[in-house]
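tmp note - Small integral membrane protein 1
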Amino acid sequence: MQPQESGVRYSRWDNSNRDEVSMTAMSSTEEPSCYRRLSQKLCSGKLGIAMKVLGGVALFWIIFILGYVTGYYVHKCK
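out:
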């Protein structure tokens, strides 16, 4: 047996108006990649919510500091 591929395949037929979309599931013997496991752990559940909140707060402070520094140099008295 050949291992199943995971993903979605889309093929358009040349002489017809129908489109074909086929989805294949990952076989039970395959393990998800390291990146997929890490992203599932960090982006879902309570840990995922905490990571999104911390990311939003960090992004806020980065934009705030950049705006403050930019405003300082733009409005600096000579």
